[in-house]
Amino acid sequence: MSVPLIRFFYPDPDPTEEFPKESADVEGYVLAPDRLVTVAAVAGTPKGVEMLDSVWATLRRKGVGRRRLVLLDDRGRTVSVMTVQIPDADDSLRYLRSSLVVPIHARGGFAEVHLLASPEEAEVIAGRIEKDGPALSVPSEVVLPPARETGALVPEDWAFLGLLSCVGAFDGPEGPSPELLAELLGVDPGAFAEKARAVERGLGDVVSGLFAPTGPEAPSEGLPP
Amino acid sequence: MGWANSTEVEATMMRLVPSQEELPSGSHSLSFYASPPEAARNMASFVRGARSRGQKALVLTDNDRMAELYRREISKEVPELSDAVRRISGPHARPSDQGLKLVEDATEFAAAHPEGATMCGDTIPSFLDRRTLPNILVYEDWFDSLRPFYHRGLCPYDLAHLPVDQVPRTFARLAHAHTHAVLSSDPNPGVRFLQLLILPYVENPPKENLGWLAQAVEYGLVDQERDAEAVDLTPRGENFARALMAMPDLANRADVAARNHRRGLPERAEGRSPRLFKPD
User: Fold this and answer.
1) Which of A43, A189, B58, B75 would give a disulfide with B261, using CB separation of 3.0 to 4.6 Å?
2) Residue-range domains of chain B with CATH
3) In this complex, do B280 and A72 lie within 8 Å of one another by their Cβ atoms?
4) pLDDT single digits (tens) A64-110
Protein backbone atom coordinates (compact mmCIF):
# COMPACT_ATOMS: atom_id res chain seq x y z
CA MET A 1 0.00 0.00 0.00
CA SER A 2 1.05 3.54 -0.50
CA VAL A 3 1.23 5.51 2.73
CA PRO A 4 1.28 9.33 2.57
CA LEU A 5 3.93 10.56 4.93
CA ILE A 6 2.99 14.19 5.35
CA ARG A 7 0.64 13.69 8.27
CA PHE A 8 3.35 11.95 10.20
CA PHE A 9 5.21 15.24 10.15
CA TYR A 10 2.45 17.80 10.29
CA PRO A 11 -0.83 17.00 12.07
CA ASP A 12 -2.57 19.74 10.08
CA PRO A 13 -0.58 20.00 6.92
CA ASP A 14 -0.62 23.07 4.82
CA PRO A 15 -1.97 21.88 1.48
CA THR A 16 0.40 24.21 -0.32
CA GLU A 17 3.40 22.72 1.38
CA GLU A 18 5.33 20.49 -0.92
CA PHE A 19 6.78 17.35 0.48
CA PRO A 20 10.39 16.80 -0.56
CA LYS A 21 10.74 14.75 -3.69
CA GLU A 22 13.91 13.12 -2.47
CA SER A 23 13.88 9.52 -1.55
CA ALA A 24 15.07 7.32 1.26
CA ASP A 25 14.73 3.64 1.84
CA VAL A 26 14.06 1.78 5.05
CA GLU A 27 16.33 -1.20 4.57
CA GLY A 28 15.90 -2.90 7.90
CA TYR A 29 14.42 -2.80 11.34
CA VAL A 30 14.48 -4.74 14.56
CA LEU A 31 12.03 -4.96 17.41
CA ALA A 32 13.28 -5.00 20.98
CA PRO A 33 11.52 -5.26 24.34
CA ASP A 34 9.74 -2.20 25.77
CA ARG A 35 8.13 -1.49 22.39
CA LEU A 36 11.40 -0.21 21.01
CA VAL A 37 11.79 -0.28 17.26
CA THR A 38 15.13 0.44 15.61
CA VAL A 39 14.92 1.40 11.97
CA ALA A 40 17.75 1.78 9.46
CA ALA A 41 16.94 4.28 6.74
CA VAL A 42 19.31 5.05 3.89
CA ALA A 43 19.59 8.21 1.83
CA GLY A 44 21.69 8.46 -1.28
CA THR A 45 21.59 12.23 -1.76
CA PRO A 46 22.13 15.30 0.45
CA LYS A 47 18.43 16.16 0.14
CA GLY A 48 17.58 12.65 1.21
CA VAL A 49 19.79 13.13 4.24
CA GLU A 50 17.91 16.34 5.03
CA MET A 51 14.69 14.41 4.80
CA LEU A 52 15.95 11.83 7.29
CA ASP A 53 17.04 14.63 9.62
CA SER A 54 13.55 16.04 9.34
CA VAL A 55 12.06 12.63 10.14
CA TRP A 56 14.22 12.38 13.23
CA ALA A 57 13.36 15.90 14.37
CA THR A 58 9.68 15.02 14.08
CA LEU A 59 10.08 11.81 16.03
CA ARG A 60 11.86 13.73 18.78
CA ARG A 61 9.16 16.40 18.77
CA LYS A 62 6.52 13.73 19.16
CA GLY A 63 8.45 12.33 22.11
CA VAL A 64 8.99 8.89 20.63
CA GLY A 65 12.55 9.26 19.29
CA ARG A 66 14.97 7.66 21.74
CA ARG A 67 18.35 7.67 20.04
CA ARG A 68 19.97 7.93 16.66
CA LEU A 69 23.29 7.02 15.11
CA VAL A 70 24.43 8.13 11.69
CA LEU A 71 27.04 6.48 9.55
CA LEU A 72 28.28 6.27 6.01
CA ASP A 73 27.97 2.84 4.46
CA ASP A 74 30.51 1.32 2.09
CA ARG A 75 28.71 2.91 -0.88
CA GLY A 76 29.01 6.38 0.62
CA ARG A 77 25.33 6.56 1.48
CA THR A 78 24.16 8.03 4.76
CA VAL A 79 22.47 5.55 7.05
CA SER A 80 20.31 6.89 9.84
CA VAL A 81 19.65 4.33 12.54
CA MET A 82 16.75 5.56 14.63
CA THR A 83 15.30 3.95 17.72
CA VAL A 84 11.75 4.91 18.59
CA GLN A 85 9.46 3.81 21.36
CA ILE A 86 5.89 3.33 20.30
CA PRO A 87 3.58 3.74 23.31
CA ASP A 88 0.70 1.44 22.37
CA ALA A 89 2.35 -0.60 19.73
CA ASP A 90 2.05 -4.15 20.94
CA ASP A 91 -0.67 -5.19 18.52
CA SER A 92 0.79 -3.26 15.59
CA LEU A 93 4.21 -4.72 16.15
CA ARG A 94 2.78 -8.20 16.38
CA TYR A 95 1.31 -7.75 12.92
CA LEU A 96 4.26 -5.96 11.47
CA ARG A 97 6.90 -8.44 12.53
CA SER A 98 5.24 -11.18 10.54
CA SER A 99 4.27 -9.12 7.53
CA LEU A 100 6.31 -6.00 6.80
CA VAL A 101 8.67 -6.52 3.88
CA VAL A 102 11.81 -4.40 3.50
CA PRO A 103 13.05 -2.36 1.77
CA ILE A 104 10.38 0.31 2.05
CA HIS A 105 10.85 3.02 -0.56
CA ALA A 106 9.84 6.51 0.50
CA ARG A 107 9.66 8.90 -2.39
CA GLY A 108 7.81 12.09 -3.16
CA GLY A 109 5.96 12.03 0.14
CA PHE A 110 4.71 8.46 -0.04
CA ALA A 111 6.06 5.23 1.37
CA GLU A 112 5.48 2.15 -0.69
CA VAL A 113 4.69 -0.52 1.87
CA HIS A 114 4.71 -4.21 0.95
CA LEU A 115 3.04 -6.65 3.29
CA LEU A 116 3.20 -10.38 3.45
CA ALA A 117 -0.37 -10.70 4.60
CA SER A 118 -3.84 -11.81 3.73
CA PRO A 119 -6.24 -9.06 2.60
CA GLU A 120 -7.92 -9.20 6.02
CA GLU A 121 -4.64 -8.81 7.87
CA ALA A 122 -3.62 -6.00 5.55
CA GLU A 123 -6.82 -4.15 6.38
CA VAL A 124 -6.13 -4.48 10.10
CA ILE A 125 -2.61 -3.15 9.62
CA ALA A 126 -3.88 -0.28 7.51
CA GLY A 127 -6.34 0.52 10.28
CA ARG A 128 -3.54 0.60 12.82
CA ILE A 129 -1.51 2.95 10.67
CA GLU A 130 -4.50 5.25 10.24
CA LYS A 131 -5.19 5.25 13.96
CA ASP A 132 -2.03 7.13 14.89
CA GLY A 133 -0.86 8.33 11.56
CA PRO A 134 -2.24 9.52 8.29
CA ALA A 135 -5.47 8.61 6.63
CA LEU A 136 -4.53 6.35 3.78
CA SER A 137 -5.40 8.05 0.57
CA VAL A 138 -4.80 4.93 -1.41
CA PRO A 139 -6.86 1.87 -0.55
CA SER A 140 -4.77 -0.79 1.05
CA GLU A 141 -3.94 -3.71 -1.11
CA VAL A 142 -1.88 -6.74 -0.63
CA VAL A 143 1.36 -6.70 -2.52
CA LEU A 144 2.45 -10.20 -3.21
CA PRO A 145 5.65 -11.29 -1.55
CA PRO A 146 8.26 -13.22 -3.47
CA ALA A 147 6.57 -16.04 -5.34
CA ARG A 148 7.74 -18.65 -2.92
CA GLU A 149 8.25 -17.51 0.66
CA THR A 150 11.16 -19.30 2.19
CA GLY A 151 9.43 -20.09 5.47
CA ALA A 152 12.56 -20.50 7.55
CA LEU A 153 12.98 -16.75 7.91
CA VAL A 154 10.01 -14.50 8.58
CA PRO A 155 9.87 -10.88 7.35
CA GLU A 156 11.19 -9.68 10.72
CA ASP A 157 14.30 -11.84 10.26
CA TRP A 158 14.92 -10.47 6.77
CA ALA A 159 14.52 -6.97 8.19
CA PHE A 160 17.07 -7.81 10.88
CA LEU A 161 19.51 -8.92 8.17
CA GLY A 162 18.78 -5.71 6.28
CA LEU A 163 19.62 -3.62 9.31
CA LEU A 164 22.81 -5.55 10.02
CA SER A 165 23.85 -5.17 6.39
CA CYS A 166 23.23 -1.39 6.41
CA VAL A 167 25.35 -0.79 9.48
CA GLY A 168 28.28 -2.84 8.20
CA ALA A 169 27.84 -5.72 10.63
CA PHE A 170 28.90 -8.16 7.90
CA ASP A 171 32.18 -6.34 7.27
CA GLY A 172 33.98 -8.47 9.84
CA PRO A 173 36.23 -6.84 12.42
CA GLU A 174 36.12 -3.57 10.44
CA GLY A 175 32.42 -3.26 11.15
CA PRO A 176 30.75 -2.44 14.45
CA SER A 177 31.45 -4.79 17.33
CA PRO A 178 28.71 -7.12 18.61
CA GLU A 179 28.63 -5.01 21.79
CA LEU A 180 27.87 -1.87 19.82
CA LEU A 181 25.32 -3.68 17.68
CA ALA A 182 23.56 -4.89 20.83
CA GLU A 183 23.54 -1.36 22.21
CA LEU A 184 22.27 -0.04 18.90
CA LEU A 185 19.39 -2.48 18.94
CA GLY A 186 18.52 -1.83 22.57
CA VAL A 187 19.32 -5.33 23.86
CA ASP A 188 22.11 -6.85 25.92
CA PRO A 189 24.93 -8.75 24.20
CA GLY A 190 23.45 -12.09 25.26
CA ALA A 191 20.14 -11.35 23.59
CA PHE A 192 21.92 -10.15 20.48
CA ALA A 193 23.99 -13.35 20.32
CA GLU A 194 20.84 -15.41 20.73
CA LYS A 195 19.11 -13.59 17.90
CA ALA A 196 22.16 -13.86 15.66
CA ARG A 197 22.29 -17.63 16.24
CA ALA A 198 18.57 -17.99 15.56
CA VAL A 199 18.84 -16.13 12.28
CA GLU A 200 21.95 -18.11 11.37
CA ARG A 201 19.93 -21.32 11.83
CA GLY A 202 17.16 -19.87 9.68
CA LEU A 203 19.67 -19.04 6.97
CA GLY A 204 20.83 -22.65 7.10
CA ASP A 205 17.28 -23.82 6.49
CA VAL A 206 16.89 -21.46 3.53
CA VAL A 207 20.16 -22.75 2.10
CA SER A 208 18.97 -26.35 2.44
CA GLY A 209 15.84 -25.52 0.49
CA LEU A 210 17.66 -23.44 -2.09
CA PHE A 211 20.25 -26.08 -2.90
CA ALA A 212 17.92 -29.05 -2.69
CA PRO A 213 18.16 -31.43 -5.64
CA THR A 214 16.19 -29.95 -8.50
CA GLY A 215 15.93 -32.97 -10.74
CA PRO A 216 17.34 -36.34 -11.59
CA GLU A 217 20.38 -34.87 -13.32
CA ALA A 218 23.70 -35.24 -11.57
CA PRO A 219 26.06 -32.26 -11.58
CA SER A 220 27.53 -32.19 -15.05
CA GLU A 221 31.09 -32.34 -16.27
CA GLY A 222 32.58 -32.64 -12.81
CA LEU A 223 31.91 -28.99 -12.07
CA PRO A 224 31.76 -28.00 -8.42
CA PRO A 225 28.31 -28.01 -6.82
CA MET B 1 55.26 -8.70 -27.30
CA GLY B 2 54.87 -12.38 -28.04
CA TRP B 3 51.12 -12.44 -28.48
CA ALA B 4 51.29 -15.07 -31.21
CA ASN B 5 48.53 -14.99 -33.74
CA SER B 6 47.01 -18.43 -33.25
CA THR B 7 44.94 -20.25 -30.69
CA GLU B 8 43.12 -23.39 -29.67
CA VAL B 9 40.24 -21.25 -28.49
CA GLU B 10 37.34 -20.20 -30.64
CA ALA B 11 34.72 -19.78 -27.98
CA THR B 12 32.05 -17.17 -28.53
CA MET B 13 30.65 -17.53 -25.03
CA MET B 14 32.59 -18.24 -21.85
CA ARG B 15 32.89 -21.94 -21.03
CA LEU B 16 33.11 -23.56 -17.59
CA VAL B 17 35.80 -26.16 -17.07
CA PRO B 18 36.28 -28.38 -14.01
CA SER B 19 39.87 -27.39 -13.17
CA GLN B 20 42.53 -24.83 -13.98
CA GLU B 21 44.73 -27.62 -15.36
CA GLU B 22 42.36 -28.11 -18.28
CA LEU B 23 42.45 -24.51 -19.47
CA PRO B 24 43.68 -24.65 -23.05
CA SER B 25 46.32 -22.67 -24.89
CA GLY B 26 44.83 -19.46 -26.18
CA SER B 27 42.55 -19.06 -23.17
CA HIS B 28 42.04 -16.02 -20.95
CA SER B 29 40.27 -17.42 -17.94
CA LEU B 30 38.57 -16.55 -14.69
CA SER B 31 39.30 -18.54 -11.58
CA PHE B 32 37.15 -18.01 -8.50
CA TYR B 33 38.36 -18.75 -5.00
CA ALA B 34 37.25 -17.94 -1.47
CA SER B 35 40.34 -18.57 0.67
CA PRO B 36 44.13 -18.39 0.30
CA PRO B 37 44.56 -22.20 0.44
CA GLU B 38 42.02 -22.61 -2.36
CA ALA B 39 43.80 -19.91 -4.38
CA ALA B 40 47.06 -21.84 -3.94
CA ARG B 41 45.52 -25.17 -4.97
CA ASN B 42 44.03 -23.49 -8.03
CA MET B 43 47.40 -22.03 -8.96
CA ALA B 44 49.10 -25.41 -8.67
CA SER B 45 46.45 -26.92 -10.91
CA PHE B 46 46.98 -24.15 -13.46
CA VAL B 47 50.74 -24.67 -13.47
CA ARG B 48 50.23 -28.44 -13.80
CA GLY B 49 48.47 -27.64 -17.06
CA ALA B 50 51.64 -25.90 -18.27
CA ARG B 51 53.65 -29.10 -17.87
CA SER B 52 51.29 -31.18 -19.98
CA ARG B 53 51.49 -28.53 -22.74
CA GLY B 54 55.23 -28.13 -22.53
CA GLN B 55 54.90 -24.48 -21.55
CA LYS B 56 56.93 -22.34 -19.18
CA ALA B 57 54.99 -20.75 -16.32
CA LEU B 58 55.03 -17.40 -14.56
CA VAL B 59 53.00 -16.50 -11.46
CA LEU B 60 53.22 -12.89 -10.33
CA THR B 61 52.22 -11.97 -6.81
CA ASP B 62 52.83 -9.02 -4.50
CA ASN B 63 52.06 -11.00 -1.36
CA ASP B 64 54.74 -12.89 0.57
CA ARG B 65 52.29 -15.26 2.19
CA MET B 66 50.68 -16.16 -1.13
CA ALA B 67 54.09 -16.58 -2.78
CA GLU B 68 54.95 -19.12 -0.09
CA LEU B 69 51.62 -20.92 -0.42
CA TYR B 70 51.94 -21.08 -4.22
CA ARG B 71 55.50 -22.45 -4.04
CA ARG B 72 54.46 -25.07 -1.52
CA GLU B 73 51.49 -26.29 -3.59
CA ILE B 74 53.33 -26.14 -6.92
CA SER B 75 56.27 -28.04 -5.41
CA LYS B 76 53.90 -30.84 -4.48
CA GLU B 77 52.34 -31.02 -7.94
CA VAL B 78 54.99 -29.90 -10.43
CA PRO B 79 58.32 -29.49 -8.63
CA GLU B 80 60.11 -28.66 -11.86
CA LEU B 81 58.02 -25.49 -12.16
CA SER B 82 58.17 -24.32 -8.55
CA ASP B 83 60.40 -21.42 -9.62
CA ALA B 84 57.47 -20.03 -11.62
CA VAL B 85 56.44 -17.81 -8.69
CA ARG B 86 57.86 -14.31 -8.84
CA ARG B 87 57.35 -11.72 -6.13
CA ILE B 88 56.70 -8.23 -7.50
CA SER B 89 56.15 -4.91 -5.75
CA GLY B 90 52.59 -3.75 -6.25
CA PRO B 91 49.92 -4.74 -8.75
CA HIS B 92 50.68 -6.63 -11.97
CA ALA B 93 48.34 -4.23 -13.80
CA ARG B 94 49.46 -0.62 -13.43
CA PRO B 95 48.11 2.73 -14.55
CA SER B 96 49.33 4.11 -17.86
CA ASP B 97 48.10 6.75 -20.30
CA GLN B 98 45.87 4.06 -21.78
CA GLY B 99 44.49 2.74 -18.51
CA LEU B 100 45.76 -0.28 -16.59
CA LYS B 101 48.37 -2.31 -18.44
CA LEU B 102 50.54 -5.33 -17.66
CA VAL B 103 53.88 -4.91 -15.92
CA GLU B 104 57.03 -5.64 -17.92
CA ASP B 105 57.66 -8.89 -16.05
CA ALA B 106 54.64 -10.30 -17.85
CA THR B 107 55.11 -8.74 -21.28
CA GLU B 108 58.79 -9.74 -21.42
CA PHE B 109 57.98 -13.31 -20.38
CA ALA B 110 55.32 -13.52 -23.08
CA ALA B 111 57.74 -12.13 -25.66
CA ALA B 112 60.36 -14.66 -24.64
CA HIS B 113 57.95 -17.52 -25.23
CA PRO B 114 56.14 -16.87 -28.49
CA GLU B 115 55.28 -20.56 -28.64
CA GLY B 116 52.96 -19.93 -25.67
CA ALA B 117 53.37 -19.59 -21.92
CA THR B 118 51.23 -20.13 -18.85
CA MET B 119 50.88 -16.85 -16.97
CA CYS B 120 49.00 -15.49 -14.02
CA GLY B 121 49.02 -12.31 -11.96
CA ASP B 122 47.12 -12.65 -8.70
CA THR B 123 47.15 -9.06 -7.49
CA ILE B 124 43.79 -7.77 -8.73
CA PRO B 125 41.82 -9.00 -5.68
CA SER B 126 44.18 -7.14 -3.37
CA PHE B 127 43.32 -3.75 -4.86
CA LEU B 128 39.81 -4.45 -6.11
CA ASP B 129 37.18 -2.34 -4.43
CA ARG B 130 34.11 -0.39 -5.43
CA ARG B 131 36.29 2.49 -6.67
CA THR B 132 38.83 0.50 -8.70
CA LEU B 133 36.40 -2.03 -10.15
CA PRO B 134 35.45 -0.04 -13.29
CA ASN B 135 39.11 0.33 -14.33
CA ILE B 136 39.76 -3.33 -13.66
CA LEU B 137 36.90 -4.31 -15.94
CA VAL B 138 38.29 -2.06 -18.69
CA TYR B 139 41.68 -3.72 -18.18
CA GLU B 140 40.12 -7.16 -18.58
CA ASP B 141 38.52 -6.05 -21.85
CA TRP B 142 41.89 -4.76 -23.04
CA PHE B 143 43.68 -7.96 -22.10
CA ASP B 144 41.09 -10.05 -23.89
CA SER B 145 41.57 -7.91 -27.00
CA LEU B 146 45.13 -9.31 -27.20
CA ARG B 147 43.75 -12.70 -28.21
CA PRO B 148 44.22 -14.78 -30.26
CA PHE B 149 47.48 -15.98 -28.71
CA TYR B 150 49.12 -19.26 -27.74
CA HIS B 151 49.34 -18.36 -24.07
CA ARG B 152 47.24 -19.44 -21.13
CA GLY B 153 46.26 -16.45 -19.03
CA LEU B 154 44.54 -16.80 -15.66
CA CYS B 155 42.73 -14.12 -13.63
CA PRO B 156 41.96 -15.19 -10.05
CA TYR B 157 39.08 -13.41 -8.28
CA ASP B 158 38.36 -13.66 -4.56
CA LEU B 159 34.60 -14.13 -4.16
CA ALA B 160 34.77 -13.38 -0.46
CA HIS B 161 35.86 -9.80 -1.15
CA LEU B 162 33.83 -8.69 -4.16
CA PRO B 163 31.36 -5.90 -3.30
CA VAL B 164 28.20 -8.02 -3.20
CA ASP B 165 25.91 -5.47 -4.83
CA GLN B 166 28.34 -5.22 -7.76
CA VAL B 167 28.59 -8.97 -8.38
CA PRO B 168 25.86 -9.36 -11.03
CA ARG B 169 27.15 -6.58 -13.28
CA THR B 170 30.75 -7.57 -12.66
CA PHE B 171 30.10 -11.18 -13.64
CA ALA B 172 28.38 -10.09 -16.83
CA ARG B 173 31.39 -7.96 -17.80
CA LEU B 174 33.97 -10.54 -16.77
CA ALA B 175 32.20 -13.28 -18.68
CA HIS B 176 32.26 -11.11 -21.77
CA ALA B 177 36.02 -10.58 -21.40
CA HIS B 178 37.11 -14.17 -20.70
CA THR B 179 37.02 -17.43 -22.62
CA HIS B 180 36.79 -19.88 -19.72
CA ALA B 181 35.99 -19.97 -16.02
CA VAL B 182 36.64 -22.33 -13.16
CA LEU B 183 34.22 -22.04 -10.25
CA SER B 184 35.26 -22.10 -6.62
CA SER B 185 34.62 -25.36 -4.81
CA ASP B 186 34.45 -23.61 -1.45
CA PRO B 187 31.50 -25.06 0.49
CA ASN B 188 30.41 -21.70 1.95
CA PRO B 189 26.79 -21.34 0.80
CA GLY B 190 27.39 -17.65 0.11
CA VAL B 191 30.02 -18.60 -2.43
CA ARG B 192 27.73 -21.19 -3.99
CA PHE B 193 24.91 -18.67 -4.12
CA LEU B 194 26.96 -15.90 -5.74
CA GLN B 195 28.34 -18.28 -8.36
CA LEU B 196 24.80 -18.98 -9.56
CA LEU B 197 24.85 -15.45 -10.95
CA ILE B 198 27.39 -16.28 -13.63
CA LEU B 199 25.37 -19.12 -15.12
CA PRO B 200 23.41 -16.99 -17.63
CA TYR B 201 26.68 -15.96 -19.25
CA VAL B 202 28.28 -19.36 -19.77
CA GLU B 203 27.97 -21.75 -22.65
CA ASN B 204 27.61 -24.92 -20.58
CA PRO B 205 25.81 -24.20 -17.28
CA PRO B 206 25.27 -27.38 -15.24
CA LYS B 207 21.60 -28.28 -15.24
CA GLU B 208 21.41 -28.74 -11.50
CA ASN B 209 22.96 -25.31 -10.89
CA LEU B 210 20.40 -23.79 -13.27
CA GLY B 211 17.72 -25.41 -11.12
CA TRP B 212 19.17 -23.71 -8.05
CA LEU B 213 19.23 -20.39 -9.86
CA ALA B 214 15.56 -20.86 -10.70
CA GLN B 215 14.86 -21.57 -7.02
CA ALA B 216 16.74 -18.41 -6.04
CA VAL B 217 14.42 -16.50 -8.37
CA GLU B 218 11.40 -18.15 -6.76
CA TYR B 219 12.70 -17.26 -3.31
CA GLY B 220 12.89 -13.60 -4.34
CA LEU B 221 16.66 -13.53 -3.99
CA VAL B 222 17.46 -13.03 -7.67
CA ASP B 223 15.70 -11.07 -10.40
CA GLN B 224 15.69 -12.67 -13.79
CA GLU B 225 13.46 -11.17 -16.39
CA ARG B 226 11.74 -13.75 -18.50
CA ASP B 227 13.71 -14.42 -21.68
CA ALA B 228 16.34 -11.92 -20.56
CA GLU B 229 19.94 -12.93 -20.22
CA ALA B 230 20.77 -10.67 -17.32
CA VAL B 231 20.24 -11.48 -13.67
CA ASP B 232 20.42 -9.20 -10.66
CA LEU B 233 20.32 -9.60 -6.92
CA THR B 234 17.24 -8.31 -5.16
CA PRO B 235 17.80 -6.28 -1.98
CA ARG B 236 16.86 -9.42 -0.07
CA GLY B 237 19.34 -11.43 -2.14
CA GLU B 238 22.13 -8.96 -1.39
CA ASN B 239 21.52 -9.23 2.35
CA PHE B 240 21.27 -13.00 2.04
CA ALA B 241 24.65 -13.24 0.30
CA ARG B 242 26.36 -10.93 2.79
CA ALA B 243 24.84 -12.82 5.71
CA LEU B 244 25.87 -16.21 4.34
CA MET B 245 29.43 -14.99 3.98
CA ALA B 246 29.66 -13.38 7.40
CA MET B 247 26.94 -14.56 9.77
CA PRO B 248 28.91 -17.47 11.29
CA ASP B 249 31.76 -15.11 12.15
CA LEU B 250 29.40 -12.46 13.51
CA ALA B 251 27.52 -15.03 15.60
CA ASN B 252 30.80 -16.34 17.02
CA ARG B 253 31.94 -12.86 17.94
CA ALA B 254 28.52 -12.16 19.44
CA ASP B 255 28.87 -15.28 21.62
CA VAL B 256 32.24 -14.05 22.87
CA ALA B 257 30.79 -10.60 23.58
CA ALA B 258 27.90 -12.19 25.47
CA ARG B 259 30.26 -14.30 27.61
CA ASN B 260 32.42 -11.27 28.36
CA HIS B 261 29.33 -9.28 29.27
CA ARG B 262 28.18 -11.98 31.70
CA ARG B 263 31.63 -12.02 33.32
CA GLY B 264 31.66 -8.24 33.58
CA LEU B 265 34.68 -7.94 31.29
CA PRO B 266 35.15 -4.60 29.53
CA GLU B 267 34.15 -4.21 25.91
CA ARG B 268 36.91 -4.50 23.32
CA ALA B 269 38.30 -1.02 22.70
CA GLU B 270 38.29 -1.34 18.92
CA GLY B 271 34.60 -2.14 18.99
CA ARG B 272 33.85 1.44 19.95
CA SER B 273 35.22 3.02 16.81
CA PRO B 274 33.63 1.44 13.79
CA ARG B 275 33.44 3.27 10.48
CA LEU B 276 32.27 6.81 11.02
CA PHE B 277 29.63 6.10 13.59
CA LYS B 278 28.68 9.27 15.36
CA PRO B 279 26.11 9.96 18.00
CA ASP B 280 23.29 12.28 17.11
Assistant:
1) A189
2) 15-208 (3.40.50)
3) no
4) 899 998 988 888 899 999 998 877 656 667 777 778 888 988 877 77
